[in-house]
Design goal:
Strand content: 5-15%
Helix content: 55-70%
Oligomer: single chain
CATH topology of the largest domain: Glucose Permease (Domain IIA)
Radius of gyration: 43 Å
CATH architecture of the largest domain: Distorted Sandwich
Number of strands: 10
CATH superfamily of the largest domain: Glucose Permease (Domain IIA)
Structural class: alpha+beta
Largest sheet: 10 strands, antiparallel
Distance between the termini: 109 Å
Number of helices: 5
Order of helices and strands: HHHHHEEEEEEEEEE
Shape: elongated
Number of domains: 2
Mean pLDDT: 72
Low-confidence stretches: 1-20
């Protein structure tokens, strides 16, 4: 019996030994798994390389975008100076033209009077003094005639000298008018050239922005970049608060910003595109307002304070931050040009920048924030109602 059982066990063991698991199938599965793993790793390596290349290209394009923004800012400043020169030259030219017209009128009167005098002198003919003397019967009349003749001669001489002086003045005035007009035309030509250059720079920037947008369609990558921009801004604001904490106030006569709730001026007289907490065109949730504006229009300070930062920043373009004291700061971003430098003191209403679309903004607009101790505050309850 025991032997029978042992024999049965040996038979079963032999049967198991004769029918082992499919070793070839197991190896095939292992090979397929290894191949899938290698393909996955290859895809990861490819994506990593593409991301590195994209980051490098994006860095180059951001640098080019910053350069274009800087060039637009420089041209905007030059154009602003040209417009100021035009505003000064136009009234001067109008004044000179009016003066020349008055001088021409006076000169015409002088010419008419001199012509009448010369005609009367010619009517007497040659030796008119002798004719007048012989025509008198009395000594008194003779004396009177001689005096009259001397007066006429002196008056004629004075009129001739006056005419010569006015002719000289007219020539000088005409020269000044021509010079002023030439200068004005030259200024206009400079303005046209600057406008053409400015538009070319804007077109170049639009091309750069379009290229950036095409490469940032990956939402996660774009949000990651926006998050890093926001983090960089918060870090900058924290650093500025630390740096400016002990800066003495130089505008003590101005009211503190915190006491002007509901009475602060708007930084730009445009329509509100995106409110506090709304979604900005780049997909970011706004911590402030996006206000529509015309390219080149003045952006003005909402209150007195000191410029804490004025430079280019990724995601914000040309940005200017004003420290108003007591932990209050205002931020003005996506400008075309910055009119103030770090450390400058400003008052409410002072022009501090010009509206633009730097930093990749799709349209001319101002991104504006108001912060208290680093935290964003809705401007609606602080700016005047319109």
């Amino acid at each position: 019996m025991w032997r029978a059982l042992a024999l049965a066990g040996l038979i079963a063991l032999a049967a198991n030994a004769a029918t082992p698991p499919d070793e070839a199938q197991r190896k095939r599965q292992e090979a397929e798994t290894a191949q899938r793993l290698e393909r996955l790793r290859s895809q990861i390596r490819t994506l990593s390389a593409e991301r590195r290349a994209l980051d490098s290209e994006r860095g180059s394009m951001v640098a080019a975008l910053r350069k274009a923004d800087d060039e637009v800012a420089a041209l905007s400043r030059a154009l602003r100076k040209t417009e100021a020169a035009l505003a000064t030259q136009e009234p001067e030219l109008a004044r000179l033209e009016a003066e020349r017209a008055a001088l021409n009128q006076s000169l015409g009167t002088q010419r008419s009077a001199l012509a009448a005098l010369l005609r009367s002198s010619y009517a007497l003919g040659r030796h008119q003094q002798l004719k007048l003397l012989l025509a008198q019967d009395h000594v008194a009349d003779l004396s009177r005639v001689l005096a009259y003749h001397r007066y006429v001669q002196a008056d004629r001489l004075n009129r001739i000298h006056s005419l010569i002086d006015e002719l000289d003045a007219l020539r000088e005035l005409s020269r000044r008018v021509d010079a002023t007009r030439a200068q004005l035309n030259g200024t206009r030509l400079d303005q046209q050239q600057q406008l053409a250059q400015l538009e070319a720079q804007r077109e170049q920037r639009r091309t750069l922005v379009a290229g950036l947008e095409r490469r940032h369609r990956d939402t996660s990558d774009k949000l990651q970049k926006l998050g890093s921009d926001e983090k960089a801004l918060l870090t900058l604001l924290a650093r500025l608060r630390d740096v400016l904490a002990d800066v003495p106030r130089q505008l003590d006569d101005a009211k503190p910003l915190s006491s002007r709730r509901g009475n602060l001026p708007w930084p730009l007289s445009g329509s509100l595109l995106t409110g506090f907490g709304g979604r900005l065109p780049d997909g970011r949730t706004g911590s402030g307002w996006l206000i529509a504006g015309t390219a080149g229009a003045d952006v003005r300070a909402i209150g007195h304070g000191r410029v804490a930062f004025a430079d280019w920043m990724s995601g914000y373009g040309l940005i200017l931050i004003i420290d108003h004291g007591d932990g209050w700061m205002s931020l003005y971003a996506n400008n075309d040009a910055l009119l103030k430098d770090g450390g400058d003191w400003v008052r409410a209403g002072d022009p501090i920048a010009t509206v633009g679309s730097s930093g990749g903004q799709g349209r001319p607009a101002l991104y504006f924030e108001l912060r208290s101790n680093g935290k964003p505050v809705d401007p609606r309850s602080w700016l005047r109602r319109r």
